[in-house]
Design goal:
disordered N terminus, 6 helices, alpha/beta, Rossmann fold
């Protein structure tokens, strides 16, 4: 049974988007840690996230994400003109994954230009905008370089991020590499 979006009340909760790859891996990690998991979704969304963990966003809720997405588009120097309604809803869903998060864990590739590849860039930009771009609890596993980075006004290498706790977003690439999957798994219960 799917839930309608509601006020979130929990001490340890993972917000994600239910996409194959990193999103589902973060959800699995959160369950292993005993955290609540919410995968934001919408009518017609193709996801394999457990139905009990899905939060179905209404059309009005999705549309409310457009203002922060336009700001993210300027930051990313990308157009906010999705080709289809489905693609638009995927980006709008990203806002809900990060808007209530205290920290962010992402897995994607960082390009030579310093830009995060793919749709993950949108969610990261939305999260960082809430933090005013300052140093914050944003962590990125760069699949290309196979290393963890911490946002300190710019991405800086670290050995590993802290174990997820509190209200956190777990997001990333649909094409999760072995190194990316291992990086997520390494934050599991064996390390706590």
């Amino acid at each position: 049974m799917s839930r309608r979006a509601a006020t979130i009340e929990a001490s340890d909760i993972c917000f994600s988007g239910g996409a194959r790859g990193a999103d589902l891996a973060w959800g699995a990690l959160a369950r292993e840690l005993g955290h609540r998991v919410l995968h934001f979704s919408f009518a017609g969304h193709r996801t394999k996230a457990p139905a009990a963990e899905r939060v179905i966003l209404s059309a009005a809720q999705l549309a409310a994400a457009d203002t922060p997405l336009r700001a993210a588009a300027r930051t990313l120097d990308r157009p906010f003109r999705p080709r289809t309604a489905y693609a638009r809803h995927l980006l709008e869903r990203d806002w809900f994954e990060v808007k209530d998060a205290e920290r962010l864990y992402a897995v994607a590739s960082l390009g030579d230009n310093g830009q995060i590849a793919g749709g993950t860039a949108w969610a990261v930009a939305l999260f960082l905008a809430q933090q005013s771009g300052a140093a914050c609890d944003a962590f990125l596993f760069d699949q290309a370089a196979k290393r963890w980075l911490h946002w300190r006004g710019a991405w800086e290498p670290i050995a590993a991020p802290p174990i997820p706790r509190g209200r956190w977003a777990g997001i990333g690439a649909r094409d999760l590499s072995r190194a990316g999957a291992a990086a997520i798994a390494a934050l599991g219960p064996a390390r706590t």
